[in-house]
Structures are given as structure tokens and as C-alpha cells.
## 1
Amino acid sequence: MRNKVTVVGAGNVGATTAQRIFDKGYADIVLVDIVDGLPQGKALDMLESGPIVGSDAQVVGSNTYEETANSDVVVVTSGIARRPGMSRDDLLLTNMKIVSSVVGETAKYSPNSVHIIVTNPLDAMAQQSLKVSGFPSERVIGMAGILDTARYRTFLSQELNVSVDSVAAYVLGGHGDTMVPVVESTNVAGTPVSQLISPSRLEEIVQRARDGGAEIVNYLKTGSAYYAPSASIVQMIEAVLFDKKEILPCTAYLQGQYGIDGLYVGVPVKVGAGGAEQIIELSLSKEELSELKKSAEAVEELVDVMANSE
Ligand code: APR
């Protein structure tokens, strides 16, 4: 029997995630969206690509949750993007309501699943999903760090003219603005990047990775990134479905690690069948630790706004 993955939100990120999984063929997929016909149409179109790409996976679209029952993994991408005139808090509270209603359903129908939260603001949405699902925190993980790290590695590989495979890096902290690259663990085939790139140039590269999401939005104008985000989600899905125990930068619930308690923050996580099976504590410099704490404070502010709205 194939694995089962539910993807909620049949927009750019959700549909591209579904397509990547479908093409690989190792899981059946249920695509859910609130818009009538959208998930059904995209799912059927994808299914009809099966004979060409050689996939026997099944993919169905739905506006309700019955079909999602007993999924192994649930990916939550449903939400709205910020529109002109909207504050960050407006976005926060709107997406909080969307994510709460979605996770209420998906957690009910797939009580043993691992949930991967993608909707922004990511860290706050993961926190809300934990609360609504009532799941143990290992089974609610946020996707951000893999994407931020991939952007950073892309720019480093271009700078040094080496394969992306030869660039190892970890990015911690919040998504985007407050991301914290761990300079000590950034290396090219074992050589610390600080020996290869000047500090000022490295800072420019870090800043470009921090602003990576905005750079894409500026080009696209009416949407945000989805190729690299969906690839990042799929890496997490594979770590869960194949119990890889891969150490990936993810947004996970900290309970004292790095001196942070009761908050979702981006850290290295061992991801396997149980979800976030272990939080890995890197030894950080004083400066990195204080930047990670700043990231956590930014998440806490959003969590407080959500709590006060209830
Ligand atoms: N239930 C199900 N689907 C919903 C709901 C809901 N309550 N509310 C909105 N949606 C759907 C929309 O109909 C839309 O199809 O979520 C989808 C979002 O898709 P896009 O607008 O294309 O957004 P996308 O680019 O996919 O980004 C989704 O991921 O990376 C983050 O910041 C991004 O929060 C955003 C999310």
C-alpha cells in the first residue's frame, strides 16, 4: 500500500508540492482547497500526467476532509497573502483563523499524522497548529529553514563556482528577516567558508538569502515563491515517510533547548517517522545565540497577538 499525503491549499505552493510527490509516485495525494473545482481540476490534470511520467499514484481533489482520513503526512499551505492596506497583524489573524479551521479537520481525520506547516507567518502558524491539533509537539513541524538554507547554499555555490552539493550550511532562527546562519558550520568540502569569502562579501550573501523571499515577490508581483518552497516540503515529507532520521533545519517546538521554552523556532531537527524526533543543539557563538533569542522574541510577539485576539 502506498503512503498517503494530504496537501491543504491547492495554490502555487500546495499544487507544486503535490506534483513533486506525484511525479515520484510513492504516495497517494489528497489536495484540498476552499475554492470549488480548483483542487479537483488540478488533481485530475495531474493524474492524467501519470502515463507520461510513469506514476501510478492516485491524486484526488476535494473541498472537504473525509477523503483525507488516515494520511501519514498533512501539509498545510492554505492562507492568504498580504494585500495592500493590510497590516502584518491582519494577515496573522486571518491566517490564524484559516489554519485553525483546517488543522481542526485534518487532525481529526488523521490523528496519527505528522503535520508540516507552511502558511506564513510560519512560526506563529506552527504554534497555533500545535494548540488546535492537541498533537505531541514532535508531530507538528514548520517548513522554513530548509528553504532559507537552500537559498544561502545557492548563492554560495554561485559565488565560489562549485556544486551546490559541496556547500554545507545551517540556517537557524525565524523565517527570513531573523534568520541566523551558523557561520562555523558553513563549509565547502570541509573548508570553512570564512577562509574562502571575505566577511563583507559573506554578509552580502547572507543578506540576499534573508531577503530571498522578497526578491522573488518583487519579480512575480502577484505571488510568492513556490518552486524552492515545495522542494523543501518534499524533503521533509521524505524524511518522515522513509524514516530517514535526516537532520534538517526546521521550525520545531523548543522546550528548554537553546534556553528557549514553549516556542516554535528554526533549529536543526532529526526528522523521521515520528516527526521531529530530536532537536539538535549546536554549540553556537554568543552572538548567534543572542540572534536566535531575538528570533524567538519576534515569534513570541506574534503568539501574544494571537492569544489576545481570542
Ligand atoms: N481552506 C482551504 N484552502 C484555503 C482556505 C481554507 N480555509 N483559505 C484559503 N485557501 C487556499 C486558497 O484558496 C489558495 O488556493 O489556499 C491557497 C493558497 O494558495 P496561493 O494563494 O497560491 O498561495 P501560495 O503561494 O501557495 O502560498 C501559500 O505558503 O509560503 C507560504 O506565504 C505563503 O502563506 C503562504 C502559503
## 2
Amino acid sequence: MTTIDRGIPLSRREGWQRLQAHKTAIGALDLSFLFADDPFRAEHLNATGAGLFFDYSKNRITTGTLELLLDLARECHLPARIEQMFGGEKINVTENRAVLHVALRAPKDEVIRVDGKNVVPEVHAVLERMSRFANRIRDGQWRGQTGKPIRNVVNIGIGGSDLGPVMAYEALRNYTRRDMRFRFVSNIDPTAFFESVRDLDPAETLFIVSSKTFTTLETMTNAHTAREWTRQALGDPAIGRHFVAVSTNEEAVRQFGIDPENMFGFWDWVGGRYSMDSAIGLSTMLAVGSENFHDMLGGFREMDLHFRSTPFEKNLPVIHGLLCVWEGTFMGSATRGVFPYDQYLKRFPAYLQQLTMESNGKHATLDGTRVDYDTGPVFWGEPGTNGQHSFYQLIHQGTRIIPSDLIGFLHPLHPSGSHHDILIANLLAQSEALAFGRTREELEKQGVPPEQIPHRICEGNRPTNVILAERLTPAVLGSLIAFYEHSVFTQGVLWGIDSFDQWGVELGKILAQKILPELTASPDDPLSHDSSTNALIVRYRKARAAGPS
Ligand code: F6P
């Protein structure tokens, strides 16, 4: 076992100093100049792997920048850290856990040990149980309490137990059973549950309670409401036919009233936001079938192998991760846009928000030192071309630089006239416009009135990555997700942080538990928060006591 390097924050590394000096040296360079200077730039600055083509030529870098970033990655022991992850070492140091989402897509004959035990056979045992269950639901063998087949599947979960499943369902909708309905309840707001089930027949509805811990307040509250909804319609004995669980907590599942026979397990070495290809993907498998689910795992696996074995100079997730560090930490870009030019990927930015921000929104290095540099940027986005008609204005002419990832497919799933050509023309146009802008001279040549010119100049030099794949298949989706997972890992290694814990979400949960009984206490019950929180609680108490007007 190798020792995890906990020692040196990024800013004390030699490579950091070199990159700072390099940044000063190239400060005035812009993309127009870089492209004019090297007509073959696009040919040098791209990489291909696991079904993805990655053009990163429109970044504010020179080949020297990339070399320095690669040196820094080596100085941060990225090669060893990758091996530690794939080898099952406990690299989630603050929780003393291995980080093995890569084991979820490992082939049967691979051996990955955690505490001396090979975990791969268990992974495949669960996958086989999931497949058998999915087949029984999909071919109508598994019947509800009244003998009707299951037509509706409702996943109850939140965070990683929701965002992966809902994203994958939307992304792979083309491959789903169109005679079944899939719903996802996450929010504690009762509207979420109500709207999800209002048109469903309980006798045809299966609930999947998805929660790694099986203690999450929102999920358990929604699960209890779902149980009551089912019980009222079909009686107590129906729970066994209409509820299954996905969790690591067998005892809590049993206590809830779900037979552990109907529980699909996973393990503490799968982080919630890295779990959509574990049993948390049960709704995905029910929707697209076991074969497509396995194709998706194959895509994840291909990217895992690419990440582990491809030289860093041609390694997609490594290069993407390094560019995120370059833009975020060195160039000061606080956010990154993710714009999939594909309607099926409409929930992909939301999924990436958790993956990236819960992983790398950290201010302490592995040894507990407060960082003195910026770590994870805000990730956000919307599908193109929709975003072009709302917020792209700011990306083109705003005062902040927003590096972006534009994702597209060479072939549409639903060819229809010129739709797809228009879609891709827009993707390419945005990348070009953001990089090269529109100059005063061009506008003058076009005869634009002088008073309008300042308003119509686009300064350009806005970085974009373009990520292209053949078609949106289950395998390509798996590859795309693994690409971002490993990019996040790369970034975390450079920043020297633990990308796999999430202590920051704890405080709000504790305070909510404290405030909850205070909301229903008598109006004069004393409060001990700050004056703002106290006053807001009192306002709510009064409104609650008075009822709706
Ligand atoms: O509160 C954050 C979090 O712990 C996420 O990391 C996780 O994905 C989500 O809550 C749901 O947790 P669980 O699957 O245990 O219900």
C-alpha cells in the first residue's frame, strides 16, 4: 500500500510557481492570436478515447501551458493516486473509505480488494439480481397485490439517489419501455409526491426507495407517505409487492417494512454521487432493460481503462481536469457552463452539479490546511440551443469569463429534416463566436452605425471545450459520465482535497432538525438563533397558527 501524499497544498508546489510565472508571461495572449500563430492548433489540441472526441484547442493555453499542467499533475502524484483509487485504497481519508465506483463496472474476472476482500463478485451478484428483477417486472411476471402487472415505477431518493437515476432515464429515454411510466420523487415539498402519483393506479405502481443510508429525512418522509398512499388503496399486505429498496442499510430497510429479499445492496465505498451505475440505477435498468444497462456499464468501463492507461498527454479526463484547474484556479474563472446540444441530456447539467460541486467544493486540504487558492468552480448549464436565447448573452459580452463545455452528437436519434444540422451548426457557431468574437473593424466594414459599435463588439477569447460522440447510446452515456467523474478526481488530486466526502451539507441538516420542532412550538416559546432566523421563525409560527387567508 502506498501512502497518500497529504503534505503539500498546491500553492507550495514548484509546478504552481512555474505556472504562475507562465501565466504572467502569456497574460496578453488571446485565442485569435494563438490560432493565427499556429494553423494546426486544432490538430494538436484534441484527444480521442472511449467513444468521445475532445477538442480543447479553444482554451487560453499554449502547448507550454499544457506541459506545465502535466508536470504539476505528476508532481501531485496523479499517476499514483489513480492507482490507489483503482486498487481500493482508502483515499477518502476523512471517512476512511475506499472509493471504488470503478469496481461497479469491472468485469467478473477482475480482482479489486477492500480490506483484503475481492468486491467484484458481490458487484456482479447484485447486477444479476437486478437483471432478474427487471426482467420479471418488464415481462409482467411480477404482479402487484391485485394481480395487475407493474406499469409505473416511482424512484424515491434525493441527491445521488435521485439525480443519477433521473438524468439517466431522461438521457436514455429513447431506449425505454414506452408503455411504462417512470417518476422521480426527491423534494420534501409534498408537491413532488403529489404530482408524481396523482394520475397513477396504486395497483400498478412500484416504489423504489433509494437511499444509501436509509436515514435521509426527505427520502424517508416521502417513503412513508408513499407507503400510506399504497396502504390506503390496497391494504397492508400490498407493501411487499409494491416496495423495493436500494440501500447499504439492511436493518433500516427491514424496519421500514421492506423484506431484505427485495433489497438491492451496495457498499460504503460507492459515494452517493458516484452511484448511478450501482443498484441505485435499478430504475434505469427497469426503464431500458438489463442489456442496455450493461452496455452503459461497458461505456463507463471503457473510459475507466482510458483514464488508467492512456498517457496523460492524450488522456481525456486528465486534460479536462487540468484545464478546469487552469481556468478556475490560475485564470480566476469562478464558474463553468455545461451545454449539451441534445434534448435527452437536459438533466445532465443538474447531475454534474452534484458530481462536481459536492466533490470539489472544499476548502481544506487532506491534511486539514485551509487552501489559499480557489478550488471547485460552480458548474451549471442548460441544453443548447435553449440557453442561447437566455443567458449566452452574458457569456459573449459579460465582464466575467465563463469557460464552457459544449457536448454534441454527430448523428441524431430522431433524424428529421434539417433539425440536427441546425443544432450542430449552432454548437459550432457558439464555440467559434466565443473564441474569436467580432471586432470593431469587422463591424465598421459591415457599415454598422458608429454609436452601435461598442454594443455590438464581442471581445471573444472565451474558452470552450467541444466534446463530440457518434450517437447518444447507453455506452456513450456511460463513457461521458466516467469522463466527468475522472476529471473531477484529477482536479481534486491537484487541489489536494478529499473529493469524496461532503461534510459541508451536515450543518444545515443539524440546524433543520433543531428548527423543525420550533416551528410548531407555541408562539412565545423562546428562540436562541440570530435575530434574523428568530424573526423568520416567529413569522412562520404566526402564519401557521392563523392558517391560510
Ligand atoms: O446530503 C447529501 C447526501 O448525503 C448526498 O451525498 C447523497 O447523495 C444524498 O445526500 C442522499 O443520501 P442517501 O442516498 O443516503 O439518502
